[in-house]
Amino acid sequence: MKIIIINGPNLNLLGKREPEIYGNKTFDDFYQELKLKYNTFDLDYYQSNIEGELIDKLQEVGFSYDGIILNAAAYTHTSVGIADAVKAITTPVIEVHISNTFAREEFRHHSFLSPNVKGIIIGFGMKSYELALQSFI
């Protein structure tokens, strides 16, 4: 099974950025652990701070992969373009968020992506990605 994790803006700073919200582990360290634990999956990872690059990646993998785990970060709440890309592809997408977005600022309570995804996992820290991965099993 071929799965890709796509992370949006500022998630490259995990482990350094707001550890009280996001924890102390870098995403690269977490990703390596995930690859070892789920070694029967063909697991890829992509991160960009640029909205258009995220759309390009969704279009690139959205017809050939078995699943996409997408944390669009702040673009979740602002990007109609990413939402349209998710709607246009055939690969199922699971929307994930590390923090409980409903316990944060009001603008984070709305997702443009949610109506177009297979499911949503919010607020379980980095475990959110693993739960999303398990949903494809």
Could you give a short description of this structure?
By secondary structure, this protein is of the alpha/beta class. It has helices spanning 19-22, 27-37, 51-61, 80-88, 127-135; strands spanning 2-7, 42-47, 67-71, 93-97, 119-122. Pathway: Metabolic intermediate biosynthesis; chorismate biosynthesis; chorismate from D-erythrose 4-phosphate and phosphoenolpyruvate: step 3/7.
Tally of alpha and pi helices: 5
Helix content range: 25-40%
Query: Are there runs of 5+ residues with pLDDT below 50, and where?
Result: none
Mean pLDDT over the residues = 92
**Mind telling me which CATH architecture this is?**
3-Layer(aba) Sandwich
| Side-by-side strand order of the widest sheet | 2-1-3-4-5
The helix-strand sequence is EHHEHEHEEH
Rounded to an integer, what's the Rg over CA atoms? 14 Å
CATH topology, which one?
Rossmann fold
Count of strand segments: 5
Q: What is the assigned CATH homologous superfamily?
A: Dehydroquinase, class II
User: How many individual domains?
Assistant: 1
Largest sheet: 5 strands, parallel
Q: Note the overall shape.
A: globular
Query: Structural class from helices and strands?
Result: alpha/beta
Spatial separation of the terminal alpha carbons: 9 Å
Q: Which strand-content bin applies to the residues?
A: 15-25%
**What is the C-level CATH assignment?**
Alpha Beta
Pfam families: DHquinase_II (PF01220)
EC number: 4.2.1.10
Protein name: 3-dehydroquinate dehydratase
Family: Belongs to the type-II 3-dehydroquinase family.
